[in-house]
Design goal:
Blueprint: H1 3-20, H2 39-46, H3 50-57, H4 61-69, H5 76-87, H6 89-97
Helix pairs in contact: 3-4, 5-6
Length: 98
């Protein structure tokens, strides 16, 4: 790695650390609002049982049940994936089919 590349990476890390300490002048945070997803509604719209939905989108049946019963809420990547499933289920099916 060149010295120039190293210094650039180092400066970026220092900016990130400063940002976490409250110095907002050295960076910008980008947040994307991913809406809440009603898993039962998405699954019903696709006409799938809990086990079929879980198998198709590679999550456990227990997780689907927990989401639908409100014991747990999808967060982070799961929430993003469910949003895409809700809007573009065929694209997700194609992508996961390999």
């Amino acid at each position: 790695m060149s010295k120039e590349a190293f210094e650039s990476i180092r400066a970026g890390l220092e900016d990130a650390l400063a940002y976490t300490r409250g110095d907002r002048s050295r960076g910008v945070a980008h947040e994307i609002d991913v809406p809440e997803v009603d898993v039962r509604e998405v699954r019903a719209k696709l006409g799938l049982s809990q086990s079929s939905f879980a198998a198709m989108f590679r999550v456990s049946v227990a997780t689907v049940r927990s989401w639908e019963l409100g014991r747990r809420r999808p967060e982070g990547p799961a929430r993003a994936l469910l949003t895409v499933i809700e809007r573009e289920p065929d694209a997700v099916r194609r992508a996961l089919a390999g």
